[in-house]
Amino acid sequence: QVELVESGGGLVQAGGSLRLSCAASGLTVSKYAMAWFRQVPGKEREFVAGISRSVGSTDYADSLKGRFTISRDNAKNTVYLQMNSLKPEDTAVYYCAAGSTHPITVPAFVLVWGQGTQVTVSS
Question: Above 90 in pLDDT, residue 105?
Answer without folding.
Answer: no
